Amino acid sequence: MAAPPAYLNLLLEAGAPADASSPDGETLLLRAVRAGASPSIVEALLAHGARADGAGVEGQPRPLEFAVGRGFPELVPLLLAKGAHPELCPGLLAAVFRTSGAGAEVVVPEKLPPDLPERLVALAQQNQERREAQSEASRAEFLERERRAESARSSSAADERLARERQDREQGERDRQRELDRRREKALMP
Question: Residue 59: left (phi > 0), alpha (psi -120 to 50), or beta?
Fold first, then answer.
């Protein structure tokens, strides 16, 4: 695993609180996980006292919920190993124990099964695949919009060129007609 950025180590070793929170109540760990920070950053924060279960503000999702929900499977084992408690994340448990598709009954056992970490990682991997597919679809949509815009620009440029050519032809016709009129007038003069 790659080392966290040197500035993070310097700050943490100098005594910066790893469990600090922003004015809106989000902890550093929660922000790091939500942003999909590298495992080394998450590990450094946890090693320097960030709480794996720290939610910051009451009712706010916990780091484990973000790691699974946003599709960062590499962070799930780190958080579980440092004390994240899935039972504190009812939405997460509902996703793991849903009997079938959305809206289906959720049956959470009283004692959590020993394979729960693997289930959480699998769910995070599914969410990662979904996120990547959405990202790829967004990229494809962006490229298609750019292609259409370029086509429209090309079409517009061609239309402008044709309009200029038509104007040039019309101007040429007017110039020729004026020249003919001038010659007629000259020929009619005594």
Answer: left
